Amino acid sequence: MNAPELIVALDVPAFEDARRVLDALDGLPIVYKVGFEAFCAYGDAIRDEIEQRRQTYFLDIKLHDIPNTVARAIRAVVRPGARIIDVHALGGSEMMQAAVEASEQRAAELGIDPPEIFAVTILTSIAPEDLRELGLTGGPGENAIRLAALARDARCSGVICSPQEVRDLKSFFGTDFKTLTPGIRPAESPHGDQKRVMTPREAREAGTDYIVVGRPILESADMRATAQAILRDLVPA
Ligand code: C5P
Predict the structure, then answer these.
(1) Distance (Å) from CA 160 to ligand 1 centroid
(2) C-alpha 214, offset from chain centre
């Protein structure tokens, strides 16, 4: 089993804060997560900065619109540093397929590797009663598996999920269909608002491909040492 890769969430309000994180973690084998906050507040600057450092990022912008609009948005964000981009599986098969094709086509035009397209299935903030309100039958787990199957058929690289779901997803869809998991806490870190967490080592043992870590690194007194400790836990013994 391969070692999962570490994605560090740049969940900070200003470009200067994000640059401090990049400086502290300089040279480590890390993919950065540029989420809504970073993308809206300083998206151009941070993508340029990560690319200048020859590192890569996961653009966590959860696209969800008609297929043509999503394809055009994907074309606009495919760049050398964009390693992963995500879309909502609830946008449907055609939309996910359009995203994958746009990523491949734009990357071919630029002569770069296509960013992997990942699908968000059911947000972890959605409770069973929220699904009923939306008219979706079944619980969050069933819906997540159904949507993951659609994502795989649309040629997405994988899904974003809870670390607790990785084993089931890998047994249903095989190890080539990737998982990207937030909700990771080193044993000694506070859980914050994350309810069902796994340590980096447990997530690796479950077989995940990417782990996302935010606050345990961002709020630590020594960001570099914390990230290095996590990276050590990701290497199989
Ligand atoms: O600080 P923390 O390690 O909890 O950060 C996790 C990151 O992953 C945040 O950017 C959060 O928005 C994201 N995320 C999550 N749970 C999900 C989906 C995304 O924690 N279900």
Answers:
(1) 10
(2) 12
- What digits encode the pLDDT tens for the residues 140-191? 889 999 999 999 999 999 999 999 999 999 999 999 999 999 999 999 888 8
Residue 212's DSSP bridge partners are: 7
* Atom 15, ligand 1: residue with shortest CA distance: 182
- CATH code assigned at 79: 3.20.20.70
Instruction: State yes or no: pLDDT of 1 exceeds 80.
Output: no
- Ligand 1 proximity of 215 Cβ (cutoff 6 Å): yes
Torsion of CA 112, 70, 4, 54, to 10 degrees: 40
This model's pTM is above 0.90: yes
Nearest CA to ligand 1 atom 14: 182
Q: Scanning the structure block, which residue is given the tokens 């050398």?
A: 80
Model pLDDT, residue 2: 80
Active site amino acids: 62
Number of domains in the chain: 1
Domain span at residue 139 reads 5-233
* Distance in Å, CA 98 to ligand 1 centroid: 26
Among protein residues, the one with the nearest Cα to ligand 1's atom 5 is 214
